[in-house]
Amino acid sequence: MSSRITPVLEGQSSDPGVNERLTQSREGWWQDTQMFGVIGRVPSLLNSIVPVFESFFGGGRIDAHIFEMMRLKTGQINDRKHRVSGPGMEEMINNRETK
């Protein structure tokens, strides 16, 4: 049995706000429906945390390469194989961390 939480997919939630946020997460600046789908299992949490993410990460406040490094490192920490697998990925992450 997997210990991973199955994310809510677009259109699956009974909360229209969650479905809209999942669509925005796919089409918008974040481009990660998996993380938002897991958080969306608790609609009030998703609806309250997204504005925090937008405030912190949105609007170019963090350079694009730093933002991508944060996503890669988070994926590595969480062992999200769909995000950080493949030949040379570990080396790429380590090289970026030293810059």
Write a compact overview of the structure shown.
The protein has helices spanning 16-27, 33-39, 43-57, 64-77, 81-84, 89-97.
Descriptive overview:
- This protein is mostly helical.
- It has 2 domains: 16-57, no CATH class; 64-97.
- The protein has helices at residues 16-27, 33-39, 43-57, 64-77, 81-84, 89-97.
- α4 (64-77) crosses α6 (89-97).
- It is globular, with a radius of gyration of 15 Å.
- The model has no long low-confidence stretch (mean pLDDT 78).
Descriptors:
99 residues, 2 domains, globular
How is the topology of this model organized?
Elements lengths: L15 H12 L5 H7 L3 H15 L6 H14 L3 H4 L4 H9 L2
Helix pairs in contact: 4-6
Q: Report the radius of gyration as a whole number of Å.
A: 15 Å
Please summarize the sheet with the most strands.
Answer: none
The number of distinct helices, counting runs of at least 4 residues, comes to 6
Please give the share of residues in helix. 55-70%
Question: How many structural domains are formed by the residues?
Answer: 2
How much beta, percentage-wise?
Answer: under 5%
Q: State the total count of DSSP E strands.
A: 0
SS-derived structural category: mainly alpha
Gross geometry: globular
List the uncertain runs.
none
| Average pLDDT metric | 78
The rounded distance between the terminal residues' Cα atoms is 39 Å
Order of helices and strands: HHHHHH
